[in-house]
Amino acid sequence: MTTTARTFTGDRHRTAPPVVSFTDVSKSFGEVRAVSELDLQLHPGETVALLGPNGAGKSSTLDLLLGLRTPDSGRVEVFGTTPQQAIARGKVGAMLQSGGLMEDVKVRELVRLACDLHPHAYPVEQVLEHADLTDIADRMVNKLSGGQEQRVRFALATAGANELVVLDEPTTGMDVSARQAFWGVMRAQARAGRAILFATHYLEEADAIADRVIVLHRGRVIADGSAAEIKAKAGARRIVFDLDEYIGEGALRELPFLSSLEVSGRTVRIQSHDADATVHALYGLGLYPRNLEVAGGPRPGAGVHRHHRRRDR
Amino acid sequence: MNTLIKLEIQRTLRNKKFMFFSVLYPAGLYLLIAGGASSTEVVKGTGLTLPLLMMVSMASFGAITAVLVGNSERIAKEREKGWVRQLRLTALPGRGYVTAKVASAAVVSLPSILVVFLIAAVVKDVRFDAAWQWFALTGAIWAGSIVFAALGVAVGYLATGDAVRPLTFIIYFGLSILGGLWMPVSTFPGWLQDIAEWVPTHAYAALGQSIELGNAPDVKDVAVLVAYLVIFGGAAAWLYRKDTRKA
Questions:
Q1: CB atoms within 10 A of CB A175
Q2: Which residues 6+ apart lie within 8 Å of B38 measured at CB?
Q3: Per the structure, how many domains does chain B have?
Q4: Residue A137: pLDDT over 70
Q5: Where would I find the H helices in chain A?
Q6: Which of B 113-142 lie inside 8 A of A, CB atoms?
Q7: Which of A1, A35, B12, B218 makes a 20 to 30 Å CA pair with A163?
Q8: CA dihedral defined by B82, B86, B92, B93, rounded to 10 degrees?
Q9: In sequence order, what are the residues at sequence separation of 6 or more whose Cβ sits closer than 8 angstroms to the Cβ of residue A64?
């Protein structure tokens, strides 16, 4: 599982210098090797999904990319310079799961701060509008719901004209319409020529948005290609089981490697491209699946979850 | 950067509890301690009357409240919540966060000094021979508060969560009492007086007392304050860098 398949790097970008370049980067936390000899290149205009279950090294990779942590060995370059310098020049916008917000201020005041700090800022009202915050611009930041907070984080990440936008599981906590609006804005950013890198544990989301998917496992790249290629390679397996009681779809959607999910009554049908990891996480959620069946090897990748894709687009 | 400082000031002004404690509480305490005291009787070993002595003490106390308590709790909380991390993803220079915190605390500490002066002048009829003494007093107490602002930053980067408040208050009350801000050091037993002499709050209050007597600040007091500034500032810088590496 350690061979790197690099079937897709986007020929149109081969000549331009890379946006992000990881050369043999490793990072450990105590005994845990979070990122292991990682080589990675991102090119201008690409929309790339970083896919993997929790603990695969996605957040650590993004932290290294953003200069929030320094690698134990290897080199991280962003726009040919250090992450810190790239950020100081206003080339990178980022939205982190762990990013907190300033309290006792209004949404507009905080967004104004972000615009003020950005070397190539957009007008405040425009940023508010794109993040769908105009209606709550005068609300205090500490009075917002989780989804609204997420939109504020998004506004902070897109306060100016960045050349790279980095998003760590950006749609966590958003409802379906917020999710759609969010990816709508991101697509517009991508069309404007920006590189976008986002972490997700959803193949579905990666497939709908990204033109390149990088799969991480234990801090290494185990696959790198278009979403269709990744799906074909991983193969979707069907997992069917019953639960003692009905639980909402929301909790199940958090399962890793999901490509589709169907709940009818107490019966759950899942398609996953890593059934082992999905089932493991299922127990991790404290659920006890009964009559568990895992079936099917690689299936024809396309069409596995077409109805989901259509909903997202 | 200016927007950040402005925003920091704005949110501090919105925090009514904090404003009460840093601006009105020292003035109230002044009235409580010096309100009924004689304006002619000199406190042993100081050359100053109680209303004069306490005016400097409470102005210093108020300034310390604004810069120490405000900074340490805020920084600890914002570190924990990830706001500091979020700010590092902006073009704000690395030290901008701390600079903005210290600058905005300095703005809030000024009214806490001036309100005590005002109350002392109006209620206890405190007057000086020369007008420059008022300006020098304000300047000395305001500038001296930077020592405690550095301490506040250090504590904010040292402690997290539930520990920061008790730690802050132990330091805050400990320094205030030991330095003689609440009662003159001359009322302490001898051995405690010997210790108090080396406490930063004591040197801080002594700056103001010298000016009230019409003298220049004592070289030893200035040296003690500078030494503490180096220690606290160094600790703050070291803890800040440690925290930055941890992300």
A1: 10
A2: B49, B50
A3: 1
A4: yes
A5: 58-65, 83-88, 107-117, 124-130, 146-157, 176-191, 203-209, 227-234, 249-253, 275-284, 306-312
A6: none
A7: A35
A8: 50
A9: A22, A25, A27, A35, A70, A71, A76, A83
Structural domains in chain A, CATH included, are 11-231 (3.40.50.300), 236-297 (3.30.70.100)
Cβ-based contacts of B4 with chain A (< 8 Å): 113, 116-117
Q: Does A176 touch chain B (CB under 8 A)?
A: no
CA dihedral B230, B232, B234, B238 (to 10 degrees): 180
List the single residue in A70, A93, A116 with the smallest CB-CB distance to B3. A116
Q: Which residues constitute the domain of residue B105?
A: 2-246
Q: What is the pLDDT along chain B (247 residues), one digit of tens a residue?
A: 788 999 999 988 888 888 888 889 999 999 999 888 888 888 887 889 999 999 999 999 999 999 999 889 989 999 988 898 888 888 887 778 888 888 888 888 999 999 999 999 999 999 998 889 999 999 999 999 999 999 999 999 999 878 999 999 999 999 999 998 988 888 889 999 999 999 999 999 999 999 999 998 999 999 999 999 999 999 998 888 888 777 5
**pLDDT the model gives residue A301:** 35
How far, in Å, CA of B101 to CA of A37, rounded?
39
DSSP state string for A56-88: SSHHHHHHHHTTSS--SEEEEEETTB-HHHHHH
Is A114 in Cβ contact with B85 (below 8 Å)? no
Q: What is the pLDDT of residues A79-133, one digit of tens each?
A: 999 999 999 999 999 998 877 899 889 999 999 999 999 999 999 999 999 888 9
Cβ of residue A188 closer than 8 Å to a chain B Cβ: no
Q: Of B23, B14, B90, whose CA–CA distance to B63 is shortest?
A: B23
State the best of A104, A111, A139 to mutate against chain B, taking most chain B CBs within 10 Å.
A104
Q: Would you give the DSSP letter of residue A32?
A: E
Give the full edge-to-edge strand order of the sheet including A195-200. A92-95, A164-168, A195-200, A47-51, A212-217, A220-225
**Residue in A72, A49, A74, A73 with CA at minimum distance from that of residue A62:** A49
CA distance A203 to A181: 19
Task: Please indicate whether residue B22 or residue A305 has the higher confidence score (pLDDT).
Answer: B22
pLDDT digits (tens, 9 = 90+) for A227-284: 888 777 666 678 889 888 877 777 788 788 887 788 888 888 888 877 888 888 888 8
ipTM over 0.85: no
* Distance, CA of A289 to CA of A266 (rounded, Å): 10
**Contact assessment for residue A261 and residue A252, using Cβ atoms and an 8 Å cutoff:** yes
Can you say how many angstroms the Cα of residue B244 is from the centroid of all Cα atoms in its chain? 26
